[in-house]
Amino acid sequence: MKDLNGKVALVTGGSKGIGYGIAEALLKSGLKVAITSRSQDAANEAAKKLGSDNVLPLESDVRSLESQQKAIENIIDKWGQLDVVIANAGLGHFASIEELTADQWNQTIDTNLTGVFYTIKATVESLKISKGYFITIASLAGTNFFASGSAYNASKFGLVGFTQAVMLDLRQYGIKVTTIMPGSVTSHFNDHTPNADDAWKIQPEDLGEMTVNLLQLDQRTLPSKIEVRPTTPPSK
């Protein structure tokens, strides 16, 4: 099992939900963690809640390569390295194709797909140095299409394919690349407020534990794509 103490991670969209759960698990495993949000206040509040001196809250928009590059500069300036990148930031607009707007389409693709492209472009040189790990948070919607999901399905189908191609590109440098594809997760996604009825769902801390397990796996072995489902979803 690898010792993760002192490693440095970036979690995009780390101020709440899945990103927060992963950041919390990484901190407990001894990593230093930068979390990004489009709001500095939100990033600061999450860092305060995490309660660790090893958190760096940053304002960054994954839809801007320049913004991503600035975040990486701040991380390197503070800690001198980058070992793990969790490309988690995402959003969803769900509507029939007749009702889906061009703005909603662009927001979804720009965040969920192009945003991950910008994230790897901003971090790849640092990951080459550290022989690091790049993990994308996709979705079961990356293989299962559904009505009113055209934008979201397109972004997540694209993200799964993108991540697998990047895995083939980067493993020659000793960089591991994995996509995690969760089903229903208790989070604030799509303006949801977590509540007691979410007990059957995957919890953010479960994905945090899974992420740590991936990081601790021997270098010779790479789970490149992981589908994750609730064990006992409600009967329809």
UniProtKB/TrEMBL annotation:
<comment type="similarity">
    <text>Belongs to the short-chain dehydrogenases/reductases (SDR) family.</text>
</comment>
<dbReference type="GO" id="GO:0032787">
    <property type="term" value="P:monocarboxylic acid metabolic process"/>
</dbReference>
<feature type="domain" description="Ketoreductase">
    <location>
        <begin position="7"/>
        <end position="189"/>
    </location>
</feature>
<dbReference type="Pfam" id="PF00106">
    <property type="entry name" value="adh_short"/>
</dbReference>
<dbReference type="InterPro" id="IPR057326">
    <property type="entry name" value="KR_dom"/>
</dbReference>
<dbReference type="InterPro" id="IPR020904">
    <property type="entry name" value="Sc_DH/Rdtase_CS"/>
</dbReference>
<dbReference type="InterPro" id="IPR036291">
    <property type="entry name" value="NAD(P)-bd_dom_sf"/>
</dbReference>
<dbReference type="InterPro" id="IPR050259">
    <property type="entry name" value="SDR"/>
</dbReference>
<protein>
    <submittedName>
        <fullName>Short-chain dehydrogenase</fullName>
    </submittedName>
</protein>
<dbReference type="InterPro" id="IPR002347">
    <property type="entry name" value="SDR_fam"/>
</dbReference>
